[in-house]
Structure formats: structure tokens, C-alpha cells
């Protein structure tokens, strides 16, 4: 997606539309929720984390599998998984000596799929 550097159009006169502002004010989520939402989207701002999530779309995998699939070292993968897990985007389960990671729920798939769809337009 190429950035658009054309100037943003502005109104020719200042006119506040009170009825519209009332609707916005009544529907705007609390500031804390907006902050949390912004923090969630920051998590999606890293291409390595996005690549990890795409692998997890296909299968539940361990760190070794992820490192191999993404051609990265296990330490780097573990660091990103920690962030994804703290944000409740992935979950883990232990099986013997291995820990397997998967998407936390279908919301994660939906968010990524819709974002990709938007980029591809």
C-alpha cells in the first residue's frame, strides 16, 4: 500500500454539529478500553509476530517448529511468543518435554484475515 501524501481537505468554515457530537459522545468507548485496543494493535505491528500467527493459523506447533518454519533462532521466537501470550493472542500446552503453541481463539484469525483483506484491496 503506497502512502498518500496529498493534503487533507478541511472545511471552509468552522461549524460544530452538536447533534453528531452527542451521538459520538454516547457511543465512544471509555478511554481505558481505547487505550487497551491501541495496545492490542501495537502487538500486530511487528512482522515477526504476524508471521508466527500465520504459522499458527495452520497448526499447533512448538518453538522448534516455528524457528525452523521462519528460519529464525528459538530465542527470538520465544521472545515474540511471550509477547503474544501476554496479550492473550496465543496459548500454550505442555506435552512431555515439548510446549505447543496455538491461536488463543478465532478472534485472532478474524483480525488478521480482515487486516490482510484490507491490505489486498
Describe the structure.
The protein has one domain (29-120): Winged helix-like DNA-binding domain superfamily/Winged helix DNA-binding domain (Arc Repressor Mutant, subunit A, Orthogonal Bundle). Strand 2 (90-95) and strand 3 (98-103) form a beta hairpin. The chain has 121 residues and is mainly α. It contains six helices and three strands, in the order H-H-H-E-H-H-E-E-H. It has helices at residues 18-27, 31-43, 47-58, 63-70, 74-86, 106-120, and strands at residues 61-62, 90-95, 98-103. 10% of the residues are buried.
> What best-fitting shape do the alpha-carbon axes yield?
elongated
First-residue to last-residue Cα separation: 9 Å
Mean pLDDT: 93
Query: What's the architecture in CATH terms?
Result: Orthogonal Bundle
Strands, total number = 3
Number of domains: 1
CATH class identity = Mainly Alpha
Major pleated sheet:
3 strands, antiparallel
What is the H level of CATH, i.e. the homologous superfamily? Winged helix-like DNA-binding domain superfamily/Winged helix DNA-binding domain
Helix content: 55-70%
How do the strands of the widest beta sheet line up side by side?
1-3-2
Short description:
With 121 residues, this protein is mainly alpha-helical.
Topology of this structure?
Elements: H1 18-27, H2 31-43, H3 47-58, E1 61-62, H4 63-70, H5 74-86, E2 90-95, E3 98-103, H6 106-120
Antiparallel strand pairs: 1-3, 2-3
Helix pairs in contact: 4-5
List keywords for this structure.
121 residues, mainly alpha, Arc Repressor Mutant, subunit A, three-stranded antiparallel β-sheet, 59% helix, 12% strand, elongated
Amino acid at each position: 500500500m503506497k502512502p498518500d501524501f496529498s493534503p487533507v481537505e478541511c472545511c471552509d468554515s468552522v461549524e460544530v454539529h452538536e447533534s453528531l457530537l452527542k451521538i459520538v459522545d454516547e457511543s465512544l468507548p471509555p478511554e481505558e478500553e481505547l487505550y487497551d485496543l491501541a495496545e492490542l494493535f501495537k502487538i500486530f505491528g511487528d512482522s515477526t509476530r504476524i508471521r508466527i500467527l500465520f504459522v499458527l493459523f495452520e497448526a499447533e506447533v512448538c518453538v522448534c517448529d516455528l524457528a525452523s518454519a521462519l528460519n529464525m533462532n528459538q530465542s527470538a521466537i520465544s521472545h515474540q511468543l511471550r509477547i503474544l501470550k501476554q496479550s492473550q493472542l496465543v496459548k500454550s500446552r505442555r506435552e512431555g518435554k515439548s510446549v505447543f503453541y496455538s491461536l488463543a481463539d478465532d478472534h485472532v484469525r478474524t483480525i488478521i484475515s480482515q487486516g490482510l483483506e484490507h491490505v489486498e484491496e
